[in-house]
Amino acid sequence: MEKRAVFATRHEDSRGRYHEEAPSATRTPFQRDRDRIVHSTAFRRLKQKTQVFVAHEGDHYRTRLTHSLEVAQIARSIARTLGLDEDLAEALALAHDLGHPPFGHAGEDQLDECMKEYEGFDHNAQTLRIVTKLEVRYPNFDGLNLSWEMLEGLVKHNGPVTGPDTPISSLPAAFRNFHQLADLEPDQFAGPEAQVAALSDDIAYNNHDIDDGIASGLFTIDDLRDIPVVGDAFRGVRVEYPHLSDRMVTYEAVRRLIGIWINDVTDETRRRIALHQPQSAAAVRAMDVPLVAFSDALAERQRPLRAFLYERMYKHYKVNRMRSQAKRLLADLFDIFLAEPETLPPPWRHDAAQVTEGRRARIVCDYIAGMTDTFAMEEHRRLFDPSGMR
Most buried of 13, 27, 114, 276, CB within 10 angstroms? Predict the structure, then answer.
């Protein structure tokens, strides 16, 4: 284990929380952030939110919760190797998908379409809305009152969100409506731990989509033979263990592939550290390129994998059918709740009464976005299937 890097985010120097609280006697600020994420309602709901497959399709496919746990494990490993704050990297990884609605990207696309006349929907912006407003668990403030470092990491984990061609006015509504957004330095990169969490997400979904795609029968090991890096890993396992079942070959190959991706990002990041020599987390944020990155060679070689998964998995006709059903289901829910807010349960019904249509639409959107796949299907049955009347 390496000692703490000079450019790591230091919990002793945290910029604090927007609502003042006494420090914890037993935890650092970032450990406290992680625990608040784990205990949140939004985090628990991830157990029945889709990654690619709808939650009821089977118990072995990844959900948003299992994906988030896998991302957190990878983020901790990389952060430890680079001498960064493991707790902050883990907390950011656990929180990164909180804003996803039911039914994965199909759900996000449909909610954005439903909200087209009401400032749209974006899952990253919804994550900020959840942790600063919608989670109501504390008597003195709304949201989770996370540290500055957590909030800026959640907003900017994919890079700066404002710049010469992207003013704040062009951002999703939840970003624009967060009064302290400018304080999060949106024109700069996030701190190093947030950058680690973002690439850990890429590593997890690249490799675990291979696992789920094979397990679901959408493609086979042989279909991957010409994919750079991936094909070599599977061939290597079959040569070394010729009698393994395809399932065991997949487990071993995916394990090796995760290692390849982790080693690449740590090697490339060390190269950039030596080149740029940042002396603080603030210096990392102020760089004109990310500090944490894949090498150009691996970034180029993983493009065929993403193209393959897009065609053979995300656009497979079985997945398309699920997407189509999911979008129609969410459109039905949105339309009825907007037109008949009295059908909303409390306290949503109370909040949606006597407000403008735009405000009601956002309340309906928040309610639907917080649903699990299974709850959304059950809610639709109760509202549209006469047998669900009670």
Answer: 114
Of 48, 43, 44, which Cα lies nearest the Cα of 58? 48
Question: Exposed, middle or buried by CB within 10 Å (0-12, 13-18, 19+), for 329?
Answer: buried
130: exposed, middle or buried (C-beta count within 10 Å: 0-12, 13-18, 19+)? buried
Beta bridge partners of 63: 50
CB within 8 Å of 173: residues ≥ 6 apart: 119, 120, 125, 362
Crossing angle (nearest 10°) for helices 104-114 and 317-339: 40
Report the distance separating Cα 135 and Cα 201, nearest Å: 24
Residue 269, C-beta contacts closer than 8 angstroms, at least 6 positions apart:
82, 291, 292, 293
Distance CA 111, CA 365 (A): 7
Q: How confident is the prediction along the chain (390 residues), in pLDDT tens digits per residue?
A: 458 999 999 999 999 999 999 999 999 999 999 999 999 999 999 999 987 655 445 555 678 999 999 999 999 999 999 999 999 999 999 999 999 999 988 999 999 999 999 999 999 999 999 999 999 999 999 999 999 999 999 999 999 999 998 999 999 999 999 999 999 999 999 999 999 999 999 999 989 899 989 988 889 999 999 999 999 999 999 999 999 999 999 999 999 999 999 999 999 999 999 999 999 999 999 999 999 999 999 999 999 999 999 999 888 888 888 889 999 999 999 999 999 999 999 999 999 988 999 999 999 999 999 999 999 999 999 999 887 555
Q: Going from the N-terminus, what domains does the chain have, and what CATH number goes with each? A: 29-184 (1.10.3210.10), 200-275+287-317 (no CATH), 321-388 (no CATH)
Burial of 25 (0-12, 13-18, 19+ CB in 10 A): exposed
What's the CA gap between 144 and 91, in Å, rounded? 13
Q: Write phi, then psi, for 163 (nearest 5 degrees).
A: 180, -170
Q: What does the alpha-carbon distance between residue 38 and residue 44 come to, in Å, rounded to a whole number? A: 8
Count other Cβ atoms within 10 Å, centred on residue 185: 18
Torsion of CA 37, 11, 76, 149, to 10 degrees: 60
